[in-house]
Amino acid sequence: MSDENDFEDVGQHASFIGHVGGIGRRRTADGVETSLRVAPHHLNPNGTTHGGVLMTLLDITLGMGVEAFLKSESGRHPITIQLNCNMMAAAPEGALVIGQAQVDGSSKTMTWASGRLIADGRTLMTGTAVFRNPPVERPS
Predict the structure, then answer these.
(1) pLDDT tens track for 34-55
(2) What is the tens place of the pLDDT at every residue in 50-87?
(3) Which of 65-74, 94-103, 125-134 has the lowest mean pLDDT?
(4) What is the DSSP letter of 1?
């Protein structure tokens, strides 16, 4: 069972991530997991988590997984080239959504990842993505 206190705030409050709000992350043996406690501003008119919020969280989760895999220290982040999502369920206000990612392959310039979002033991979304790797710093 996930404890919300195991996650640290991702920061980036001046960016879109800060606008979404409430996203956390933690390191795991396999990479990184993310979290989001569903707040009123994450809801759609039906009273469940907006699909765009879930897609955003999955994109962030997969990107952080790729970043951890690449061990990039350049300060630059992987860039999403393609994101495919399969929505299966929604989460109500107050639910703790956990994002999990794995890297499926990598080349010099691209990395492929897949993952899922879960809440209360249910899979909410699965997805795959292709990322452009951040540039490698070359010594001067």
Answers:
(1) 999 999 999 999 999 999 999 9
(2) 999 999 999 999 999 999 898 866 677 899 999 999 99
(3) 65-74
(4) -
E-only strand ranges, 18-95: 23-28, 31-37, 79-87
Top-level CATH class of 4-132? alpha beta
CA angle 96, 57, 88 (to 5 degrees): 75
Q: Would you kindly state where each structural domain of the chain is located, as residue ranges?
A: 4-132
* pTM > 0.85: yes
In the chain, DSSP finds a helix count (H) and a strand count (E) of 2, 7
Residue 33 CB partners (closer than 8 Å, separation 6+): 2, 7, 25, 26, 61, 98, 99, 100, 101
Give the integer Cα–Cα distance in Å for 140 and 134: 18
* Burial (CB count within 10 angstroms: exposed 0-12, middle 13-18, buried 19+), residue 102: middle
Between the alpha carbon of residue 72 and those of residues 66, 113, 126, 136, the distances in Å are 9, 16, 25, 8
